[in-house]
Amino acid sequence: MKLSGLEKRFLGAVGLISLLCIGLFVVRVAATHTSHYWFLVQNLGLAWLPLIFVWLLRDELKRRRWLSWQCLSLTLLWVVFLPNTWYVLTDFLHVQPTGEINQLYDIVMVSSLVLAGFVLGFTSLYLMHKELLKKFRVRTAHTAVLAILLLSSFAIYLGRDLRWNSWDVITNPSGLILNVSDRVVDPFGYHHAFNVTGLFFVLLTITYLAIWLLLRPLKNPKP
């Protein structure tokens, strides 16, 4: 996996934010002698996986068709783990006045995780969007991105409310399908699922649209 100079700089920048998150967690553990927020490190690691998968996929697409098992496998892994990058926003629910340390410290610590996760997630989606535009029509690529954002939003609901995680897609797919099929068939019958999914879909879509409008290449750049 060969990275350009800009990608290496990006890696260093988001790596710095990730180290900040880990450093704040380590300081908290040392100061309180508790590992109350141990899940931050795990969630941060999961947030890095989609970027790695899309970089690997991009390299594979230079040599193989998208329908090859290698590219399809990487695409599936990317879709499955992508929601973890935005799921971290829900970790703010864990920030409570425990008396172990100043609550503001925990807010800053979780904020560093959310910042890293969102940067990783939207960067990963942007790279996938560019690959889709190379292979498919513009409308098809845009529709695929919207579908991915909708699936990710629903996955965030599944993770936070039903406590499913990305690994369950591999380890317990039948249980996952049985547990969520009724919500897929009748989304309006489950108001909380519909509301949470819709809320995240609007947030992620508007945020990504703003990023896309800022970064998308100009059709006729002026000299």
The number of distinct structural domains comes to 1
Q: Which consecutive residue ranges, at least 5 long each, have pLDDT under 50? A: none
Distance linking N and C termini: 33 Å
What is the 3D shape? globular
Output the helix-strand order: HHHHHHHHH
Helix content: over 70%
Radius of gyration: 19 Å
Query: What is the tally of helical segments?
Result: 9
Main pleated-sheet profile:
none
Structure description:
- The protein is an all-alpha fold and 223 residues long.
- It has one domain (5-215).
- It contains 9 helices and no strands.
- It has helices at residues 5-32, 39-61, 69-81, 83-87, 103-135, 138-161, 168-171, 173-185, 191-215.
- Helix 2 runs parallel beside helix 5 (103-135).
- It is globular, with a radius of gyration of 19 Å.
- The chain starts with a helix and ends in an 8-residue tail after the last helix.
- The model has no long low-confidence stretch (mean pLDDT 89).
State the main characteristics.
single chain, 223 residues, mainly alpha, 9 helices
Please summarize what this structure is.
The chain has 223 residues and is an all-alpha fold. The chain has 9 helices and no strands.
Describe the secondary-structure layout:
Elements: H1 5-32, H2 39-61, H3 69-81, H4 83-87, H5 103-135, H6 138-161, H7 168-171, H8 173-185, H9 191-215
Helix pairs in contact: 1-5, 2-3, 2-5, 5-6, 6-9
